[in-house]
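Sorry to interrupt, but I need a hand with the structure work. Could you write out one complete protein record for me, on any chain you like? Just paste the record in under my message, thanks.

. . .
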Amino acid sequence: MTTVTEEPAAAGPTAARGVAKLLALRTAAPDTVVPQQSAFDAYYREVYRDVPKAEEIFRGSGVSQRHMAWDPRTAYTDGFPTIKPRMAAWEENVLAMSRTTVGGVLEDAADELRERIGTFVMASCTGYAGPTPDILLAKEFELRQDLRRTFIGHMGCNAAFNVLKTAFDALAARPGELVLAGSAEVCSVHHRPEFTAEQAVVNALFGDAGAMTLLGADDGGPGPVFLGTHTETHPETTHAMSWHIEDLAFRMTLSPYVPFYLAESIEPFVKRLLAPHGLDVGDVQHWGVHPGGPKIIDFVGEKLDLTPEQLAPSRAVLAENGNCSSATILLILDRILRTSRPAPGERAVLMAFGPGLTMESALVRF
């Protein structure tokens, strides 16, 4: 069974007014950069000494370095911490990264625009604390007292789309306001004493990062515009990806069959995103594919007949940052904007995948 959620759109490819305009985007990551091979040689080689092909797993991850709040080469020398210090590190680093990203997008906003920020939506699935980070950030940046806030937790790598869709709903209800929307993830605090091939894959992939957007209603002027989103949930594959809190850390399961499940579904999934806008795959110049691993990028690219250039932003983010959970797709959008330099009128499809198995996507016009 597949559950499908679509947003209405105008009939033609050029007639649709967007659901939101991207006014600003900023990203951040911890200062500590951990080279993949160095981390394996100094720490993971011994940890996974009984896992066949452990080094092959790390070398084949597509990751060359990661930004990590907890450098595994030093953070676990005295053993595995309990959940309390892990959550303290999560809160500290989410706030640090978000100070950079929120501060960055607010730098681009004049005082009158700041006063129009009426909603703040944020996601993180790597930790919990109350008050949630959005409350503390709203106080620190002196945002409005009547600010509407939503904090989204535990939804996984696709959570940025839930943040965006909540922001779009806010703009639909109150088109005169602006919305802060983003996420921050600290995956590095969840390395756990479980020495299996599955956990080697997890520890070869995940890094830390945050991203924040400032969104407003589409005024018809130039600039990136979100045209719509599309969601599908495939509950027959719920076993393939999971995220649970255990005594020492959060535990992620990640089936090696996830790329195959996605490969079976990706073509009709993308068609259902594009069809309401009168578009097909060939009408989209730029692609952001959440790099849950290199095989996911490979399989999606092959099924959709994408070029190496179209997949380059996803591969570059995987190589330089790793999989940063919900923040990753916004890192990829940032890279598309900075390096691909889309021409006015060109389009992008962004997509991410998470527990459920949930598939999320958004269509952007530049």
